[in-house]
Amino acid sequence: MWRYILRRIVYLAPVFIGISFFVFFMLHMTPGDPAKMILGDTATEENVQLLRAEMGLNDPFLVQYWRYIKNAVRGDIGKSYITKSSVAREVSQAFPATVKLALFSITIAIFVGVPLGIISAIRQYSLLDNIAMGFALIGISMPVFWLGLLLILFFCVKLGWFPASGFDTLKQMILPAVTLSTPSLAIISRISRSSMLEVIRQDYIRTARAKGQAELRVIWDHALGNALIPIVTIVGLQFGGLLEGAVVTEAVFAVPGIGSLLVEAIKTRDYPMVLGGVLFIGIVFSLVNLAVDVLYAYIDPRIKAQYQSP
C-alpha cells in the first residue's frame, strides 16, 4: 500500500508540470499587458517597456516558464503584480474559506444525494423516484451563477432570511453552500441510484432476502457496501470540482476565497496570482484523487489484495 502511495505521489510531479505549462501558456497568449495595467493608461511607452524588462516580460516564453519552474521548486511561486506581496501567502490566506465552502457543500451533497439515490433505487419508477430524478436533472442542468442569483433574489431580497454576501457566520454560509452543492447533489444521487440498482439485482441480495432478513438490513449490510465504489469515486471527483466551481460561487456571494482572488487577478492581468491559484487548486484536486484511490482499499478487500500483490 505504501509503495503504491509513494508511486502515485511521484506521478503527481508531471501532472503539476503539465498544469503549470498549460496555464502559463494560456496566460502568455491572453491579450493585455500587465505592465500597462500596473502603470495605468497615462504611462508613457518608455516607462511601460522599462517595467516589462524589469518584470522579465520581454523574454521568450520558454525562458519565462523555465524561470518560473526554477523558482517554484525553491518554494517561490512569485509575487503579485498588483499588491507586490507573496502569491503563496495570499493564496494560503484565501484557501481556508474555499475549503470551508467546498466541505460544507460536499457534506450537503452526500447526506442528501446518497440517501435520495438509494431510496429512488429501492422504489424504482415510483412517484418519489420520478420526482427525485427530475429534480436531479434540473440540478445538473442549472448554471451555478444563475441559481445563486435566484437564491439571493428570493431568500435575501424578497424574504430577507439570509444575507446576500459574507462568509463569517453559519447564516452567511448556507446560500453559497446550497448553490455550490446543487449540481454535485444531483450527480451523486443519480450515481447512487444507478449503483444501487445494479447491486440489488445480484444473486446474493436475493439470497439474503430469501433467508428472511429485514429489508433495511439487506440494504445496509449487503447492498450499500458493494455499491460504494462508484459513489466514492464520484464524491472525490465532485469535491475537486467544487474547488473549481467555487470560483463562480464566491464571486456571486462575495466569499473571500481563492475564487474571488482569481477573479480579481484575471481582471487585473495579475499572472502570478492566477497561476498560483490554479496550481494550488490542481494540487489539492490531485491529492483528493489519491485519497479516494487509497480509500478504495478499505471499502473493497479485492482492491486491497491487488495493492498487496507483488
Structure description:
The protein has 310 residues and is mainly α. The protein has a domain at 95-308: Orthogonal Bundle (MetI-like fold), CATH 1.10.3720. Helices cover 80% and strands 0% of the residues. Helix 8 runs antiparallel to helix 10. It is globular. It starts with a helix and ends with a helix. The model has no long low-confidence stretch (mean pLDDT 78).
State Rg: 24 Å
CATH topology of the domain at 95-308: MetI-like fold
State the total count of DSSP E strands.
0
CATH structural architecture of the domain at 95-308: Orthogonal Bundle
Assign the CATH superfamily of the domain at 95-308: MetI-like
* Helical residue percent band: over 70%
Q: State the CATH class of the domain at 95-308.
A: Mainly Alpha
Distance between the termini: 11 Å
Taken as a percent bin, the fraction of beta residues is under 5%
Helix and strand sequence: HHHHHHHHHHHHH
- The shape is globular
Chain-averaged pLDDT = 78
Which stretches are low in confidence, meaning pLDDT under 50 for 5 or more residues running? none
Contiguous helical run count: 13
Main β-sheet, in a few words?
none
What structural class do helix, strand and pairing data support?
mainly alpha
